[in-house]
Amino acid sequence: MRTRLLLAIVLAVGLLAALAVVVAGQGEVPAPYAGLKNPLPWDDASAQEAGKKVYQQSCVGCHGAKGDALPQFNFSAADHPKDMETRPDYFLWVLSEGRLSKGMPPFKASLSETQRWQMLTYLWSLGKPAATPKPPDGTPQPDVTPVPAPPSEEGATLWVGTPREAEVNKAVKLLATLQDKQGKPIKGVAIEFFWKVDFFGDRLLAIGEAETDSQGIATLEFTPREAGRLDVVARYKAIETVVPLNMKAPEEPLYETEVGIKLPAPGKEVFIGPESAHRLRAGDLAPMTALRLPGGIGSWLWLFIGVIMLIWSTYFRVVFQVFRIPVRREIRDIDTRFLPTIGLGMVMLLGTMLVLMIITGPFSHMHLG
Amino acid sequence: MRTRAESYEQRLERVVLNPLSQTTRGYKLFVLSLLAVVGWGLYAYYIQLRYGLGATGMRDVVMWGLYLVNFVFFIGISHAGTLISAILRVTQAGWRTPVTRMAELITVVAISIGALMPLIDLGRPERVWELIAFGRFQSPLLWDIVSITSYLTGSLIYLYLPTIPDFALMRDRLGYYANPVKRLIYTVLAVGWRGTPEQHRRLEKAIGIMAITIIPIAISVHTVVSYVFSMTLRPGWNSTVFGIYFVIGAIFSGIASILIVMAIFRKFYHLEEYLTERHFRNLGYLMLVALFIYLYLTFGEYLTVAYKMQVEEKHLLETLFVGSNALWFWFFVIAGLVIPALIIILRKGPVIPRMVIAAVLINIAMWIKRFAIVIPSLQVPLMPFDFGAYYPTWVEWSITAGAFAGFILIFAIFAKLVPLISIWEVAEGARETPQPRVATLVEQSGMKPEEIEALLSKAVAEKGRSRVEQ
Amino acid sequence: MQEKEKGLNRRQFIKWSVGAVGLAAALTTPLLPVINQARSAGSSPETPAKEAPAQPDKKKRAWCMIIDLKKCEGCVTIGAPPQCTMACINGHFTPKGQQWIQVFQVELSNGGKFFMPTPCYQCENAPCVNVCPVAATYHNEDGLVLIDHDRCIGCRFCMAACPYQRRFFNWTVPELPPEAAFAEYSPLYPVPARKGTVIKCMFCGHLLHDGKLPLCVAGCPMKALYMGDFDSDMATNGAEVVPLRQFLKENDAYRYKEALGTQPRVWYLPGHGQAFGRTTDDPREFKTPVWSWGGDGFEPRPGIWPWGKEIK
Description:
By secondary structure, chain B is an all-alpha fold. Chain B is 75% helix and 0% strand.
């Protein structure tokens, strides 16, 4: 027992040591990169902006919008900026040469060295808490909530109105009013509309464009398909207005799978079993068996059940005939009737089992609701 | 040995029961060698259990192999029996009586072996119970289970019922000086049969019901087996004709198997008097009818597909007609359809060897045909890649050999326990209808049945068949 | 002897009662799992039921995938095996030989080839789900076709039924790297693979509700794969979000073998890799995926004779 324990400890220590060597080996930066320092200041906002652009094109897919999609390389961790400051050469090396075995492509060829440093500067900023600007409140109107954007350099203001409450999958009318410094409407310019979505990361989804009319109002209809608070963004040049939209959740899922022919059901489904048999087990494990008669009492299954019951009751009757073959007393040195009794039992057992097999079963098409 | 005083029934009993009371050395050796093959098959199955299905030649593209081929083949053979004997019984074909017992025995044994095959094919055989607990009736496999269970039970009952009087006979004849175990078995199985009119009435009624019940079940079984294939979107399988195609194929190979079994037992059990040329000729003609229907269905199946030439079907036909599976396909056409048809139609040479040769050819060809149904459809690429490859390994061949040996073994053992000719039915037939010509002549003249057969066929040649066989 | 007084033969009594018990047992067999489950649900006080993993996003989704064939270059441009397949292999430790998302080279009529990545199509009218005898493969509420490897009996009927050959079988115990053993199994993340069961792509169901893209989508350097949701009508390739239905319509999206009626949830945007200027005589070579942990996969098989090659 003790030797075993000792052996285990020795093994564990050895393993740890090996692991340490491997980890240390990973951190060793090869020649062209070793010792390089970031030429840009870490908090350079313009460099961060440039890095952000590249990041959102090439990195978001794996690393996520906040850089936290991969736990080994969590850029939004609090200690991450410090890590980058202490060994920038390592990060530049990984970024340049990639880690193909782990799916990280090399960027040496596609990005210049400055661009790569800009990218790292942006990654550094991900670990710093960002101050979120708050949209200014607007004056409520009867059925729309207009939110003005702060006047831009040219002094124009963009007001956006949305309905107070809207329903998912119903068309929503968005009104954007563009006024110049004097409060006069600007006519004939295109306003772009976006929608802030959280779909595998926060992104802007383009809804469309609309042109302002003589009163400076651009109207766009769109059909949102997400419940909860939506942020609609209207943009004219550099002016941007964000307005919240409260969407009521739909009662039914918006997408219904259409499979098969909908036959008129003779009745409501008969279902005997725990309610959970309607769903998958926890962790999406295979569903459980329940007694089900699709179509209820008038189910088409009766056809099969009837045929099988007919067949097996015929078997029963036939074996019963054997059972009733009269046995004369003088040859009953052994009671031979147990054989047909066993036969009857088997027939009953098998027949009932088959019928039960037909009417019980797991429900496997959860997507059909 | 044969005396004039021995009546027809006495001789019938003596001839039929003789093999049951004696065991020759040859028989023992035969059984031992079969046991060896079955044992080897079991060893191969152990290897498969140990290493998983990776021990077979099946892989992701061709994921079903010999086991499914054997499954279809054995279930096919099983049709021999019950379907044919039931149809003949319902149509009251008088000549059937000596044939039915063997046919029914083939059914029970073949269906037991056949039903094992999909179980051997499972990747997780220890989870078979889930088929009962979680069975989905929407799956064609469940239809198979339901109909095969029904068919096996029905066939067992249908085999057992007409055997009761024979069991009683054996209980009375062999019982007291045979070994006690045998005596006990026969006594129990005879369930107190005394041959009273009341018992006869009940038995006949039961048999009559079963004969009618078993026919639709037999048809459903092979239809459902074909549905395992035709419920998929595969070239060659995606076909509406598969149900009847499989049923006819099953009857076809079933009759061929009966012919082979009949010829073997005729020779070794000396049943020449009861299994006459007439039986072989009649079954041969039935087989010819099945052959032509099968030929017609095969023709229709491939023509309708070949005319349209959908791309996947084209690949299938290519591999079947000129590609890597052409050998199998044309072997089936020539050895399974053309040659047997010619052999049966041309009537050159003695009847029995002719029919047996045709039957053996048909059974080999039908196994290969099942191979050509299952494998090439799986080899056809459904995605942009090459044809799949399938080379069965020794594990699969061993299990296949073991299954065939097991089939023969169970049959050989049954043949020692149960009279292979239904004594009471043949005797009854001889009593009720004018005795078969050969039998009467044997009694009258004391000549050997073979000599009388020869004389008869000479007479047939001279006068025409109808007048001799009334 | 009391039995006799009651007028009941003891032997008969025993016989019938044994028969009745047997019959009752047989009748309830199909219901056993139900009863067991009901019992385990009822007796939660003493045995606390295993907590279902908290789902950050409980919304019902209708996942789908869009594959832009214009952008897919089979990764010949970066001289590496297809990165979607590689990400899948490394993320799922798929047994050697199983490419759950496989990139096929499809011949063009002018002699060239284009690349077609093929995951499991998660058909809405899935032939595999329809034929499974034990509901080991099933649709979950999000429309993903999953496999429960504790239920699968290995009959391979689903593989025969799949018209896309997107299902794989674990013919023997697969050779996997040691890390695979630490993975927590779930039908959404079937790792490690189990002997004698069928396995396939699950759209990385374990990542989706956590707001993470499937490994192949995230791994595609060309951003040719999009993950979409019909319920919220959006799709993203990791770089941009597009309105799903509009996007499919504008790009003439099609589904593979649509005429079969399986209703796959994978759409292809037609094209032959034009986005990267591939020509028919492109000399760049398509590289087949490699398994970093090596091994022979399921390839070694016994020879024709027992004394031939060895079984591994």
